[in-house]
Prior knowledge:
InterPro entries: MFS_trans_sf (IPR036259), Proton-linked_MCT (IPR050327). The chain is an all-alpha fold. The protein has helices at 4-13, 51-82, 89-98, 100-119, 124-142, and strands at 21-22, 27-28. It folds into three domains: 4-30, no CATH class; 45-86; 87-143.
Amino acid sequence: xxxxxxxxxxxxxxxxxxxxxxxxxxxxxxxxxxxxxLEHGLPTxxxxxxxxxxxxxxxxxxxxxxxxxxxxxxxxxxxxxxxxTGHGPIVSALTNxxxxxxxxxxxxxxxxxxxxxxxxxxxxxxMYFSFGIVAGKLMFVCL
Length: 143
């Protein structure tokens, strides 16, 4: 049986959040009122429940961003007819010469080179060029 001095020493070494049981009594430590909600005895989220708003916001951002990028092809034909233009001189020429598959692979290679160049960017202006222009603009020219 531990003495009172030993119990106090153990209690002082363990912080409140690491101590699973009350060493002096040997029963589970009672939770503080702030750790448990009064309804249904469920634990209160540490962020007050705002984590679900972050999840919802992130989901909506992906729905909008991916929805726009993946559904643009639906509007492309109507936009080219409305503005009386083609898909672009570079893409049209590359597609006519090499075909769709090779043109798409060239776009992926250009984007990869732009991303790899961004790794070695010595300043922000080079990053603008490599990531923004090479990887961003030129990739979509070929895709």
